[in-house]
Amino acid sequence: MPIRHRLLAVVVAVLWGANFIAIHASLEIFPPFLCSALRFTLMAIPTILFVPRPQVPTRWLVGYGIGFGILQFAFLYLAMDAGMPTGLASLVLQSSAPFTVVLGAVLLGERLSGRAASGVAVAALGMAVVGSQRLDAEAGLLPFVLTLMAGLGWAFGNLASRLAAAPKPLHLTMWMTVIPPVPMLVLSLLVEGPERISTALADSVTSAAIPAWLGLAYTTVLATVVGSGIWTWLMARHPSGTVAPFSMLVPVTGLALAWLLLDEVPAPLELVGGALVVGGVLWASRPRRTEALPEPVPESAVPVGR
Fold first, then answer.
1. What is the pLDDT of residues 257-291, one digit of tens each?
2. How far apart are alpha carbons 155 and 161 in whole angstroms?
3. Quick one: how many helices (H) and strands (E) in the chain?
4. For the residues of 152-169, what is the DSSP string, one character each?
5. Residue 182's closest CA among 60, 62, 30?
6. Model's pTM, two decimal places?
7. What are the CA-CA distances from residue 270 to residues 91, 92, 110, 140, 267 (Å)?
8. Which helix (H) or strand (E) holds 88?
9. CB neighbours (10 Å) of residue 289?
10. Conformation bin of residue 30: beta by default, left when phi > 0, alpha when psi is -120 to 50
């Protein structure tokens, strides 16, 4: 993998890590479900107009949109709105990786190797360590559990994406954004209520809402379109085992930026738990020596995004 491609992978990890700061800014004005609805609406409109529909079964497109779009971000935004620290959210969301491994074995009958099983166990131990620290936190355990549910939703989205086997994965990623807006808006109306929505929309036209709109723009353009586009391009040209470990830089970036910009200082045991999570995921995703490297083909990777 050339150095410039490695640098691009690092750039994507930084973009995705900083995305949690952008989400934090958006949630300062918009309630979580409305915020998510706006995010996906901003992406869905140009997608419908300019991006060809992916040639995949509708059930897997909808499943991807429900898992990756609705469940992941409904729970993630709700968790952050309920008090989940921004940096810690970027770490706990990595639970999607061990969830994907386990669900693939249970639901799809995929073989779970000893390496993968041990990596999942180490990552689960790390999550338990982080969760134990949330018991004494001011916000309590609920935001942590909600973030775990977001990771589980992402894992279901991963399985749907894999089963879709899209010839052009970036098109699948973009069309996934068509699924969440209406359900998210209905959730917002039912849970957050018209009064809270109208207040947020009124506040959104004031100067105080500029960071929130910038956060939405960042999430839509840089984190999703640019980040996922570069990631898909890299995955099409290199073995997944070479590219995927760079995603472990996402929580490193998220924790560091939250520390610098939001004064979020993680507890020592949270850092220990985070190291276990990152190490476990890296170990589980490490390819076996006997695995043959795939030939590069255009857009032949499962897209990843935040």
1. 999 999 988 778 878 888 888 788 777 666 655 44
2. 10
3. 16, 0
4. HHHHHHHHHHHHHT-SSH
5. 62
6. 0.85
7. 10, 10, 32, 14, 5
8. helix 86-92
9. 5
10. beta
